[in-house]
Amino acid sequence: MLSPTPPTRVKKGKIISVEEAVRLIRDGDTVATGGFVGTGFAEEIAVKLEEQFLKTGRPMGLTLIYAAGQGDGDQKGLNHLAHEGLLKRVIGGLPAGGLNFGAGTNMDALLDQPYQFDFYDGGGLDVAFLGLAQADREGNLNVSKFGPKLSGAGGFINISQNAKKIVFVGTFTAGGLEVSVEDGKLRIVREGKVKKFLNQVEHVTFSGKYAAMKNQTVRFVTERCVFSLTKEGMELVEIAPGIDVEKDVLPWMDFKPVIREPTCLMDERIFRPEPMGLREILLAIPLEERLIYNPAENLFFVNFEGHSIKTRKDIWDAKETVEKILAPMGKKVHTIVNYDNFTVLPDLVDEYTDMVKYLVNKYYTDVTRYTTSTFLRMKLGDALQKRGVKPHIYESHDEAHKALKKE
Asked: How far is the CA of 24 from the CAs of 128, 167, 186, in angstroms?
């Protein structure tokens, strides 16, 4: 869970940055996390991702890629992501410790490091979240050299320059920054001593010019504003409620970003203590996009994952949308229904299953269903059986698909 920071304060701006960043992760994305063992891991990103998944069930089916056992092996780091459904695949394995550092256990496959970097260089990452130390007017980023200190780039270049979407996350200034949230507005209590948005970074670890040339999606998310990289340079696209661009942003930059009026406000719900309603946002998939017909197999796929039946209108909308697709075909179809995280109000179960029976009799040659919820399998199964519809509901898509082929 989030650290116990009072709702009227923002801990170094990281909570706001995390809210913006995590909302960009979608189902099935391939996500890389930075850090080396216990150092440099984006802990707040992992915490917020875990919190969002436990509340909404989304995002799900992620592929996680990491380098070297990030976290403390207990309460921090990758353990936040150890929830069934959140991850589909993990590339990194369980690292050994002590004198066996560098080895791993319980791996399904062992790849040479160059092959792993081939994956990065080939654009295998859908989204990457990396730290923001210094940025400049061209969107270049420096995380590798500060004065006489050279930390090196590691795999930062490979990951950042080739991910389809890259989000750099950090505070707007450094060295003593303190902020608070009051009445839904951000207030700068004490400004940081060190500017992070410069005319020119002292070391280019990420090339903004190259990213713009590739049309790569690049965001710079801070506690008070968000920048987007364009061919014209850094563009200010969002500011936090309560922030004055002329007072709180421009004086603390060595360059003036592209500004198009009016500048959008960051989502105001981020700055309020009550829930943001992310479940409704993330699961709001139009019915039309939930219904897919494959003519090659004469297969109709109904994706009711995360869908809710709360009113009679929801039932009729589902019926009419299915008929709109299937009625013009003039033939019956094989059907698979995904009921993962599906909900229907108890007093609507009978009416919903009556509608299902109607569709089965009129449009389906055969149908299989699946969900990981034992309770839903029992509830829907009983209702279907009472109506003379095959009641068995499988646990996975593979089981449902195999059963459909046998019927």
From this structure: 10, 9, 22
Q: Name the CA dihedral angle for 268, 270, 274, 280, rounded to a multiple of 10 degrees.
A: 90
407 pLDDT tier (thresholds 50, 70, 90)? low
Name the residue type at position 56: T
- Residue 122: partners with Cβ closer than 8 Å, 6 or more residues away: 162
Structure-token pair, residue 16 = 């706001």
What number is the average pLDDT over the span 279-299?
Answer: 83
pLDDT by residue (tens digit) across 41-96?
Answer: 778 888 888 888 888 888 888 888 876 666 666 677 777 888 888 888 877 765 55
Burial profile 103-127: b = 16 or more Cβ within 10 angstroms, e = fewer:
eeeeeeeeeeeeebeebbeeebbbb
Which residues in the chain are classed under CATH 3.30.750.24? Answer: 285-406
9-279 to CATH, choices 3.40.1360.10, 3.30.360.10, 1.10.10.10, 3.40.1080.10: 3.40.1080.10
Compute the chain's Rg from CA coordinates. 25
Q: Which helix (H) or strand (E) holds 229?
A: strand 225-230
Full-model pTM: 0.57
